[in-house]
Amino acid sequence: MGLTIQKAERGDADMVAFLVHQLIEESFNGKDNPDPRQIQESAEKLLKNNNSHAIIAFDDDTPVGVMTIIEAVAVHARGKFAIIMEFFVLPQARSKGVGWKMVQYAENMAQKNGWHWLELCVPQGGDKEEAEAFFVRNGFQNMGPALHKRVVIRQQP
User: Fold this and answer.
1) In a domain, 53, yes or no
2) Assigned domain for 146 exists
3) Which residues are CB-contacts of 126 (< 8 A; sequence separation ≥ 6)?
């Protein structure tokens, strides 16, 4: 396996969208699945935003993993930190060091960008316990559950 990790560029939106779509399918068993065009548009927006990033893992030339990250600022964080919004490795590439290398890459980005920590939420669905164990093995601490509220965005007249 010729594993490489690289930061996604604007032209990589198709790969980011494909892998995030796989994450959504696995995590939610096809329920609440957004339209693929919405995923594509969101990937394009993410890659155009200066405060967001995507990392893609490749096995030779085949994309096998994705991580999306946003930069945030908070007083309690003493400045900048990063939130891993999506993290997915294709099933056939798991347990081969892909996720570990992606976390290492994100840690290097944190050093370069002055992020004081990396944060993430492991959503319900999929194999939540296995995912949490992976992150704990890689230095993350369980800080408790996260809550979210969906907001309906109304079109402006």
Assistant:
1) yes
2) no
3) 26, 27
